[in-house]
Amino acid sequence: MRGKQLLFCLLTMAALTASAQNKPIKKRVDSLLKLMTLKEKIGQLNQYSGRELTGPASNRKNNLLNDIRSGMVGSMLNVKGVKDTREIQAAALQSRLKIPLLFSLDVIHGYKTVFPVPLAEAASWDMEAIGQSAHIAAKEAAASGIHWTFAPMVDIARDPRWGRIMEGAGEDTYLGSAIAKARVLGFQGKKLGATDAVMACVKHFAAYGAAVAGRDYNPVDMSEQMLHEVYLPPFKAALDAGAATFMNSFNTLNGVPATASSYLQRDILKGAWKYSGFVVSDWGSIREMVPWGYAQNLSEAAQYAILAGSDMDMESEAYKKELEKLVLAGKVNSVLIDDAVRRILTKKFELGLFDDPYKFSDFQREERVMQDKSHAAIARSVARSSVVLLKNELNTLPLKTGIKKIALIGPLATAKTDLASTWTVYADTLSMTSVYEGLKEKYSPVAELTYAKGCNLNDQDTTGFKSAVELAGKADVVVMVLGEAGDMTGEAKSRTDLSLPGRQEALFRAVKATGKKIVVVLMAGRPLIFNSIAQQADAIVYAFWLGAEAGHAVADVLSGDYNPSGKLPVTFPRSVGQIPLFYNYLNTGRPISKEGDIHYRSAYMDSPNSPRYAFGYGLSYTSFDYSNLKMSTDFLKKGQDLTVSFTLKNTGEYTGEEVVQLYIQDKVASIVRPVKELKGFEKINLKPGERKIVKFVLPASQLAFYKPGAGWVTEAGAFKLMIGSASDQIRLEQTFNLN
Length: 739
Ligand code: GLC
Known about the structure:
Residues 658-727 form the Fibronectin type III-like domain. This protein is an alpha/beta fold. Helix 2 crosses helix 15, helix 3 runs antiparallel to helix 14 and helix 7 runs parallel beside helix 8 (173-188).
């Protein structure tokens, strides 16, 4: 009899589970919500960092575990690996309602396999490569128990003094929006819940990249028009791509901390944009309302944050400590708490965590995915396409195989850890390939590779110059690898001086005096200022930070095994004095006619207006011809799309990829418009002599601009259409009229 009873119970449980699993998620959320106490609801809004949890026993660790066991924690960050996530999830399942935790991590440019930093990947203009990079990162993170990454960072940045420019897609709204979409789709895949995908988190909402003077955490002040036209569209593109979560930002926007801004989080994000996911605060940003002088104390900060639509509290403990009292005092309506909890529980159900809380924490999958050798090959391919060729006099590059002796000089030539820059969460730097190792593999033993450091990255010691100069004197060609240290960009890494730190430029001049041909490889997470190198080097390659496969990628480019195809996603200024400097500037009422025309003109007495290198600029080992521009009409009706075509031809000797760029200028409007705006691009691969007719369809919506009080509008009048190989290299242009 007992066997039949047991079977009946098992079958009943299975049926109940199955029926629960088949119930719509909304119903499952509502029925769970009804069971929750106010304390348990607030627990779901609380996120802790797990740094202390995975270390040795400590009071903090015991307190954290007790909170987790009593359902006072909804999510953890900085816990990774199947072992640790299983242990901590088990603690959460001891709580009364057994609500599983979300595990999150800053998987910004790879998990175990370190990919190029986001700004480098942006230089590839290759949405497929960028999507692949995000997918591999998600696959490795998800195999390690992670449900949620704090990426993509989509902050438009026009100020290279700001160290976090490295984490985003550069200065342009159109390119930044395309990359935001590619990254969200790469991280999340087709549907949440797959164990090779993670939730994306679009950050930092909003306008964090416009921090005054490029100083991190500084205030942001801007017009409604600038906010909506330049800084918000990448967030909207990410949302339209299905982004599961958002993160707010540390900055104030026009005097209100973003974390307390119901204009940003309720009016725009959850209101106009109808966002149904949840918003996590940035680390401690709720608590930071007090030093901002916006809240008198933690209780007020908690009140302002929940009222403004900040659903989850990262590491302030403001909600855990203050929300229950605020609700009981009638200062916060429990409806707001329920809304935030619903948003968070919905994601946990969508991930399938209630059906299997350990589904992302599988030891066998973790081992298999981490061993996957295909990831390095993809990282190498993404890295190569992120390299930008800035200069190549007399075809110094590619380094011909006939070369017998290459002198490799510079403090970054053998660098490994630097190649990962910051926001690497797992990197075993020994797996990194340095430029030295990459060139050695590529050229030895046919060519001899000698090496001298020459100087350190960031001090005044020049004692290494002599041996470097001697080495250069004996070589056929010199390759110098210079730049910043890898940890000089990222969070809280603002600089007022963007030149190469230490005595690197002096080392370059000393080696230059030998008269040898010099190829300079520059590595950094931001645009640097290097005017003497720009003028005197024979060839310059900007490699940003390319991650684990940097050495192989640089060697592939220098050898010509890969023809560089990158284009700058951000303007490179000649001096800090020019900042902020960007390509889509306004013409002013006194534009210069040419450099040097400064007489009562909008110009400097001591510098050209033009940048050192322009947005969209990058050379190739081959050359491309643009011809035969055609448009579907010269008189466009409102709402009508414009079809544009032109012929692109590879007129050189190498197969190569060209990023063709489509810009427009709205010549006259009721809010003055930039001299040009990127509204289309395509990366095209052509063999020598091959030609292709390139087609763009310019949607009518791309002619619109944001007008306060009216929203997005288009106005009749003349437009200029431009096709360029860079923002300052327009190859074809034609005007059309919008009626
Ligand atoms: C940091 C960063 C944010 C990151 C978060 C968690 O302060 O601003 O980008 O995702 O905290 O590490």
